[in-house]
Design a protein that fits this description.
alpha+beta; Immunoglobulin-like; 3 helices; 28% strand; membrane
C-alpha cells in the first residue's frame, strides 16, 4: 500500500532558497499577499463598524413594540376614563386615542370638553399637539364601552416611540405608540 503525500509546489529563489507559492489573486507575486496581521485588523475594523452602526440604530429612540399600556389611577378617578391605545393611522397623518368609559357621568364631562382636549406629546422630541380633528360631544356614555378621538399629526408622534397625554393637570406618561 502506497500513501502519497500532497505537497505544495515551491519555487526557487535567486539564492537557492524555496519560496512559498503565490496566493490566488496576487498576480504570482508572493509578497503581494496580505499578511495575517493585516487580515486580522481588517476583520476587527469590520466588526467595530457593524457594532457601532447597530448601537446608533438601537439607541436612536427606544422602541415601544410590546410595551404595556400604562395607567394612572388618579386620572381614571378624576375623569372616568382609562386610555387604552394610541396609534398612528391614516399613513401617519392622524393619531387615534382610544379610551374606556369607567364612569359615564365623569366620562361625559371629559368628552364634552372639546375646547380643552388632552395634550398629546412625544417623549422623543419637543413636539406636542392639542389639535383634535374628531372629538364628538353628546354621546350617551356607557361604562365598559370604548370610545376614541383623533388628533391631526404633523410628525408629533411616530410609530414605535413613546408619548404622553396631559389633561386637567394630570399626565399619563410612557404610552407606547402603535
Amino acid at each position: 500500500m502506497t500513501i502519497a503525500l500532497a505537497s505544495h509546489p515551491t519555487s526557487e529563489g535567486s539564492d537557492g532558497s524555496a519560496t512559498p507559492p503565490a496566493e490566488p489573486g496576487t498576480g504570482g507575486d508572493p509578497s503581494a499577499a496580505p499578511s495575517g496581521r493585516l487580515r486580522w485588523l481588517v476583520a476587527l475594523a469590520v466588526v467595530i463598524v457593524v457594532a457601532v452602526g447597530a448601537l446608533v440604530v438601537l439607541t436612536r429612540h427606544p422602541s415601544s413594540a410590546g410595551a404595556p399600556m400604562p395607567s394612572n389611577a388618579a386620572m381614571e378617578q378624576a375623569f372616568g376614563v382609562r386610555f387604552t391605545r394610541v396609534a398612528v393611522v391614516a399613513d401617519g397623518g392622524l393619531v387615534q386615542v382610544n379610551y374606556l368609559c369607567l364612569d359615564p357621568s365623569k366620562a361625559s364631562e371629559f368628552q364634552s370638553d372639546t375646547a380643552h382636549p388632552p395634550v398629546l406629546a412625544s417623549e422623543s422630541r419637543a413636539a406636542r399637539t392639542a389639535v383634535v380633528a374628531l372629538m364628538k360631544k353628546g354621546h350617551a356614555m356607557t361604562a365598559g364601552q370604548t370610545y376614541y378621538f383623533v388628533y391631526r399629526n404633523s410628525g408629533v408622534v411616530q410609530r414605535d416611540e413613546f408619548a404622553s397625554l396631559t389633561y386637567g393637570g394630570r399626565t399619563l406618561a410612557h404610552i407606547p405608540v402603535l
